């Protein structure tokens, strides 16, 4: 009798185990129990490639630390030597948004390999050699945080030689090309409104906000506006021809 009871108990226990296994398969999928030694989570696979997909992937091929794209000039006016309080104010505002305390010697913080010398002590040839020798990192440099493609273009536009220094005077000269391309002459003449000029500047310098209050490159490689729209507008209003 005892033997019969033990057999019945064993059979009943086996039945419960089978039911539990079937329940687990129906809830978690038939491959879960065979996926490894007790693993509760199976790495997802991409339906296209069949490769194991990471839980957190970089969905943007540009990466977190890459240079923003070079802007398209709003106006292709010839560069000129710019003078005036308005130019000095705009330059200082760009420094506030882009380079701050490092000014003319600023190097983008995400650059893992920095130049061996201060940017103002380097020639243009040395700047471009550093860029070429350190791929895969951001290279925005100087008071105005020139990105490589823009730097090459404005250097060519002013006819600067590779042996010339990337000093304060050179950086201001290169930045002035961008100010003219953003419509400075039209802004001075009243043909371009303050808001339009500000938006053009924001397309060049990611630290400046556009009319939305955000950077034109918001979210691109970690870019965001570093000053408020209220601050930007208040400063520009002081030098705006329309004062409106």
Automatic annotation (TrEMBL):
Top-level taxon of the source organism: Bacteria
InterPro entries: Lysozyme-like_dom_sf
Region forming the signal peptide: 1-22
Sorted UniProt keywords: Signal
Protein's name according to its UniProt entry: Transglycosylase SLT domain-containing protein
Organism: Sulfitobacter geojensis
């Amino acid at each position: 009798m005892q033997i019969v009871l033990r057999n019945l108990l064993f059979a009943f226990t086996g039945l419960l185990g089978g039911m539990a296994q079937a329940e687990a398969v129906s809830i978690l999928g038939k491959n879960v129990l065979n996926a490894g030694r007790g693993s509760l989570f199976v790495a997802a696979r991409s339906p296209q490639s069949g490769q194991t997909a990471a839980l957190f992937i970089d969905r943007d091929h540009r990466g977190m630390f890459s240079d923003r794209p070079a802007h398209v000039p709003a106006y292709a006016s010839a560069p000129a030597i710019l003078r005036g309080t308005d130019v000095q104010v705009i330059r200082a505002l760009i420094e506030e948004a882009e380079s701050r305390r490092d000014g003319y010697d600023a190097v983008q913080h995400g650059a893992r390999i920095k130049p061996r010398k201060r940017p103002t002590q380097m020639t243009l040839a040395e700047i471009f050699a550093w860029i070429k020798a350190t791929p895969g990192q951001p290279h925005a440099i100087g008071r105005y945080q020139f990105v490589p493609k823009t730097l090459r273009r404005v250097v060519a536009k002013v006819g600067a030689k590779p042996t010339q220094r990337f000093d304060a005077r050179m950086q201001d000269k290169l930045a002035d090309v961008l100010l003219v391309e953003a419509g400075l002459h039209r802004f001075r003449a009243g043909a371009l409104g303050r808001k339009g000029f500000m938006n053009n500047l924001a397309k060049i310098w990611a630290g400046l906000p556009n009319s939305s209050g955000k950077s034109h490159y918001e979210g691109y490689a970690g870019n965001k506006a570093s000053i408020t729209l209220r601050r930007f507008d208040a400063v520009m209003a002081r030098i705006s021809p329309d004062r409106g």
